[in-house]
Amino acid sequence: MNINEAAIDDAVLALLHLTLHDHYRAWKGFDWDSLNRLYERGLIDNPVNKTKSVVLTDEGLRESERLFKQLFSTGDSTID
């Protein structure tokens, strides 16, 4: 089976938006390969550290919100 890693990464980034706290941090309980690819794309800071959360960059914050709305919104409500 071929896996579309870009689609997986988009879903992970969207789910990081779901767990946002402190305005730019999200829980990093996702696949390490995907987190590393998001880091390489400049969407999150280096996930390899002792904290249980990862910091989203400004671009990562914007993209995570866009993807969250695209993938998971029904279109009848707004995200706070």
Q: Give Rg in angstroms.
A: 12 Å
CATH class: Mainly Alpha
Summarize the main sheet.
3 strands, antiparallel
- What class would the helix/strand composition place it in? mainly alpha
- The portion of residues assigned to helices is 40-55%
* Overall spatial form: globular
Tell me the strand order in the biggest sheet: 1-2-3
Please give the count of helices: 3
Q: Catalogue the unreliable spans.
A: none
Number of domains: 1
| SSE series | HEEHEH
Enter the CATH topology name.
Answer: Arc Repressor Mutant, subunit A
Span of the ends, CA to CA = 38 Å
What is the β-strand count?
A: 3
How much beta, percentage-wise? 5-15%
Overall CATH architecture:
Orthogonal Bundle
What descriptive keywords fit this protein?
80 residues; mainly alpha; Arc Repressor Mutant, subunit A; 3-stranded antiparallel beta sheet; 3 helices; 48% helix; 10% strand; globular; DUF6429; DUF6429 domain-containing protein
Topology summary:
Blueprint: H1 5-18, E1 20-21, E2 25-27, H2 32-40, E3 53-55, H3 58-72
Antiparallel strand pairs: 1-2, 2-3
Helix pairs in contact: 1-2, 1-3
What does this structure look like?
With 80 residues, the protein is mainly α. It has a single domain, classed as Orthogonal Bundle (Arc Repressor Mutant, subunit A). It contains 3 helices and 3 strands. The longest helix has 15 residues, at 58-72. It is globular, with a radius of gyration of 12 Å.
Brief sketch in words of this structure:
By secondary structure, the protein is mainly alpha-helical. It has three helices and three strands. Strand 1 (20-21) and strand 2 (25-27) form a beta hairpin.
